[in-house]
Design a protein that fits this description.
By secondary structure, the chain is mainly α. It has five helices and no strands. Helix 3 (24-37) runs antiparallel to helix 4. The longest helix has 14 residues, at 24-37. It starts with 7 loop residues before the first helix and ends in an 8-residue tail after the last helix. The mean pLDDT is 82.
Length: 73
């Protein structure tokens, strides 16, 4: 996995990011917006299409453990 730039979900605090990651819709929206902001258009589109299932669960676990969302590319 690539090294993340700052905190996920637009630099919000870890507790706020965990709360937003728990809610599936906000996790889905903020996940693909974060990837678009980082300049990873393909990854953002994949999150847009596939971010409501396994990726959401991975994001939730990783946000609690490390404070960052899943980065495949």
């Amino acid at each position: 996995m690539a090294k993340a730039k700052g905190k996920d979900y637009f630099g919000l605090g870890r507790l706020v990011s965990i709360i937003l990651a728990i809610i599936p819709v906000t996790s889905w929206v903020l996940g693909f917006l974060t990837r678009f902001k980082e300049g990873h258009i393909i990854c953002g589109l994949l999150r847009l299409l596939l971010g409501w299932n396994i990726i959401w669960l991975c994001d939730l676990v990783l946000m609690i453990v490390s404070g960052h969302i899943l980065r495949l590319a």
